[in-house]
Amino acid sequence: MKSIFSIACLVLIFCGMSCSGNNQEQQPRPLYQSIDTVPMLIMQIQQCAKLHTAEYHIHKIITHDDVIQFKGNLLHQNIDIKLPLGQRKVAIPMDATLKAYIDFSTFSKENIERQNELITILLPDPKVELTSSKINQKEIRTFVGLTRAGFSDEELSQYEQQGREAILKSIPNMGIIEMARENAARTLIPMLEQMGFKESNITIAFRKDKTIQRLTN
Amino acid sequence: MNTIRINELKIKGKRLTLATFGIAAFILVFWYLFFSEKDNHLNFVVDHQIDVTPEQIQSIKAIGEWEFLSVSCEELVDTIRKGLFSDDHLVRIYFGTMRLGINLHQVKPGWMHVDGDSIEVTLPPVGLLDRDFIDEARTKAFYESGKWTAKDREALYQKAYRQMLSHGLTQQNMENARLNAKTQFRRMMQAMGYNYVSIRFEE
Predict the structure, then answer these.
(1) Which chain B residue lies closest to A169 (C-alpha atoms)?
(2) Distance from CA of residue A199 to its chain's centroid?
(3) What is the ipTM of this complex?
(4) In-domain check, residue B51
(5) Which chain A residues are Cβ-neighbours of B67 within 8 angstroms?
(6) Per-residue pLDDT tens for B79-102?
(7) Structural domain of residue A48, as residue ranges?
(8) Which residue range(s) make up the domain with B11?
(9) Out of A166, B99, B154, B196, which could bridge B129 as a Cys pair, Cβ 3.0 to 4.6 Å?
């Protein structure tokens, strides 16, 4: 029964090969066809007023060393054995763009102090967001041990998400907030000069907790 | 002859008894190790955490982009590879945010004109502030069958990019961004003390 089935399979394969051979003469066909079947969209539109003042381009190589370990406790003895030929390694290069912005959505008369020719603009502290990220798919390198399966798309996505989180966590050490404040002053002062204020009379200040940090003049 | 057979049977019986005792002893030891002692446990463990690697700042740029409308998209994109016996599928969900607004580095000299308590503001045209808007590292792998290469994933990314552009960068969204830009600038100028505010966009 099995032999009949395998012969039938072979015949089918040969038929398929011969058919594709005939087609190749008439019209070259690609090795496989990609078809989109599930176009779906969820969209969220939001009105805002954000002045982006600083842009950082970050590069990171996400690495993961995946070893199967036989771990446990037996008769009050810790056991930790790395299984041979069970190692996998992956390196994923990624680029991300961070932008710092000042939120003007709550900007009102309370943010402005005027005394004759002097003007002080009081701004909220800048915030940072990750505006885009790109995985360099062609540069991903994987090494898979003999006893292991290759990395799945889900696993790679998980590592990429962890890399993204690591970039977000490192924001406070990058000095982007400080730069955003300085650039905000550089953007707003020419605007106020266009309105007729002298540069020496303009102060851009930031509210940070209870203290106010003055940047200009 | 019979004596030899009896001896053989006795030896076989002894072996059987020994084997039974051996199995019983093994079960007892196994039971003791894994059930009577709660501390005893052995597992296969795989660590799914990434290694700690540095983040390199490649460039720092001073920008002046004023965002007035953000369009956040989720795109479910898939590809199928037809096979002889079965088809392979790759389905991924991409996330991206298109930011519409004006670039203050594009303003022309004299873009603000003040006359007493009136101000006339000419803003640069509203557009997409950044062509890179997909957050690929947030991508969710939804389904995968068969083997897929980096080229296939890159093609899916490009497909998601085109779909987001066509769905998010519409005339209506551009008009909404323009309207919000006018509203926000008018409010800001009024807060500065200008009673009459006129805002228009460059052609």
Answers:
(1) B55
(2) 39
(3) 0.80
(4) no
(5) 48-52, 101
(6) 999 988 889 999 999 999 999 999
(7) 44-214
(8) 1-39
(9) B99
